[in-house]
Amino acid sequence: MTQDEPSIVILTGAGLSAESGLGTFRDAGGLWTQVRLEDVATPEGFARDPERVLAFYNARRENCRAAQPNPAHRALARLQRARPGAALIVTQNVDDLHERAGSPPAEVLHMHGRLDRTLCNFCRHAFDDDAPLSTARGCPACGVQALRPDVVWFGEVPYHLERIFAALERCDLFVSIGTSGEVHPAAGFVAHARAAGARTLELNLEPSAGARLFDKAVHGPASRIVPKWVA
Ligand code: BJW
Question: Which GO terms describe its cellular component (predicted)?
Fold first, then answer.
């Protein structure tokens, strides 16, 4: 294994940022119990009512800016800084709390995109920008008024999949933190890593949908169990 080939792949989900005040999706009181995901997190929902979708994400952007990394984000950043190139974070989270906790940006792959980036739904130009979105704003590249947050909705293809699957096939250890294991393709990563020979560990509040595929599990709040695992 060369230095730039990670030996640990860490998949993170909404549970990691829950104690930073950002809501999860499927827990009691989670986002998908408050709004219909078909309305706000699909290309069809955006086509039907773009103003509604943009208002939903403008509010999420504000919440994200106000949130702070918690001890679990900081512990993962310490691990990465202690072992440069050895631990790759693959996050489903669209917040930037890994980076703000000190994780090297090149070692964090945002497979479901980022709230602080904007995408033109017409020409696919993507750029750093978290100013409020509206249907009146035009794309800086093509001028068309079709801007949206650069996040991956249901039915769209997640980012960085080639690099992620290559890392899963080479890693010695796969760790899943704060994710329900309900959403594909991320839900299949544990089986993929395991089939390629990795040990597997789940750190979550409760057993996830894929719980039987993990060699070991620790249940509890991320801010407690992640620093303990890293130490
Ligand atoms: C704590 C905690 C604490 C709480 N400490 N833990 C039928 C079968 C299989 C697949 C499909 C199917 N029908 C359709 C599909 C595909 C679909 C899919 O998976 N659907 C399922 C729902 C069935 N997937 C897609 O469409 C994806 N694209 C795709 O498949 O493309 C095709 C393709 C793939 C590969 C190659 C080529 C083509 C895209 C999925 C996009 C998901 N987007 C969202 C929204 C992003 C933008 C936004 O934020 O608004 O991503 S949905 C939402 O779910 C978000 C999350 O990243 C994602 C995962 O959620 P996560 O992180 O797991 O959160 P929760 O809430 O579910 O779980 C939190 C967990 O934390 C819980 O277990 C808690 O207990 C725990 N927890 N507090 C520790 N303090």
Answer: cytoplasm
Ligand 1 pocket test: pick from 39, 183, 203, 219 the residue with the most ligand atoms within 8 Å of its Cβ. 183
Task: Kindly name the residue from 98, 110, 112, 184 that is annotated as catalytic.
Answer: 112
Output the pTM of the full model: 0.97
Q: Is 112 a catalytic residue?
A: yes
| Angle subtended at Cα 227 by Cα 222 and Cα 231, rounded to the nearest 5 degrees | 155
**Cα 214 to chain centroid, rounded:** 20
Question: What whole-number distance in Å separates Cα of residue 102 and Cα of residue 96?
Answer: 10
Q: How many CA atoms lie within 13 A of 199 on its CB side?
A: 8
CB 117 within 8 A of CB 150: yes
6-35: average pLDDT: 94
Omega before 221 cis (within 30°)? Answer: no
**3-class secondary-structure state, position 160:** coil
- What's the complex ipTM? 0.96
Residue-range domains of the chain with CATH: 1-22+69-112+158-231 (3.40.50.1220), 30-66+115-151 (3.30.1600.10)
> Ligand 1: does its nearest atom lie under 6 Å from the Cβ of 91?
no
Buried b (16+ CB within 10 A) or exposed e, 83-118: eebbbbbbbbbbbbbbbebebeeebbbbbbbbbbbb
